[in-house]
């Protein structure tokens, strides 16, 4: 019914059980939290997410887009956290009001990985898991059916809503609407011709979707699944390797072991 963020591929990540990929994503998040104050220790986690991105076969375009946006976020993170820790550690760079120390740079790098690593991990998870199996996985971990359905539908409709918003903006610009001129108040007011048709389109889609769900008796009785994912030996090996790798990284980040 929906495709959402899922990208059809034949890859290693696509072949894994959705539960193993969900556990892996949570392990990436846990390791990123444990290493958030020392970016050097978060580098192995970042490399592992890039390897997973490559193993998911999503293509270089997606990888380059994520890395490019990550670099912009890293610059912002460095400016923010370097200012907070400007009085600690050895000064590496001083340029006007900007004062970067080694401690501030390590923390900035760690905070950067704290955000970027889980994002890449969950992008891999959602892009390599069909909405059908995502719904099945959520119900397997005891998420209520209606809550799981709402989440999957919202996630699946997100790309189409972004596309509709782009089409509306292009149409209004073709009619002479200029969004990048004028004061802040004027720019906000100019977005009204975009918001109104966008909400109209969304309400129409939601109404059509509600009729489809009603005809399929969604929400009435217990749902069964024809195609269920099977846990394979590759999933067990993948999880064991992930537990050891991210467990060591987390222990290293918390100072429990020295590498």
From TrEMBL:
GO terms for cellular component: plasma membrane. Keywords: Membrane, Transmembrane, Transmembrane helix. It is a multi-pass membrane protein. InterPro entries: ABC/ECF_trnsptr_transmembrane. It is found in: Membrane. Signal peptide: none annotated. Pfam families: CbiQ (PF02361). The chain crosses the membrane at residues 22-40, 52-85, 105-127, 147-166, 237-257. This is Energy-coupling factor transporter transmembrane protein EcfT.
């Amino acid at each position: 019914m929906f495709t959402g963020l899922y990208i059809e591929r034949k890859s290693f990540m696509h072949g894994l059980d959705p539960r193993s990929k969900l556990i892996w994503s949570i392990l990436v998040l846990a390791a990123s939290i444990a290493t958030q104050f020392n970016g050097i220790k978060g580098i192995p986690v970042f490399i592992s997410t890039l390897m997973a991105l490559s193993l998911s076969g999503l293509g270089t375009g997606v990888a380059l887009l994520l890395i490019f946006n990550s670099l912009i976020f890293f610059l912002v993170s460095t400016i923010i956290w370097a200012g907070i820790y400007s009085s600690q550690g050895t000064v590496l760079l001083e340029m006007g009001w900007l004062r970067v120390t080694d401690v501030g740079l390590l923390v900035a790098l760690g905070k950067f990985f704290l955000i970027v690593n889980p994002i890449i991990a969950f992008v891999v998870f959602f892009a390599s898991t069909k909405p059908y199996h995502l719904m099945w996985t959520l119900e397997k971990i005891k998420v209520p059916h209606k809550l799981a359905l709402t989440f999957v539908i919202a996630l699946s409709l997100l790309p189409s809503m972004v596309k509709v918003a782009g089409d509306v903006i292009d149409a209004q610009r073709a009619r002479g609407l200029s969004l990048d001129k004028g004061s802040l108040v004027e720019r906000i007011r100019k977005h009204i011709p975009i918001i109104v048709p966008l909400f109209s389109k969304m309400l129409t889609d939601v109404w059509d979707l509600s009729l489809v769900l009603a005809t399929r008796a969604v929400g009435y009785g217990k749902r069964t699944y024809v195609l269920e994912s099977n846990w394979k030996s590759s999933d067990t090996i993948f999880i064991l390797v992930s537990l050891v790798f991210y467990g060591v990284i987390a222990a290293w980040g918390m100072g429990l072991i020295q590498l």
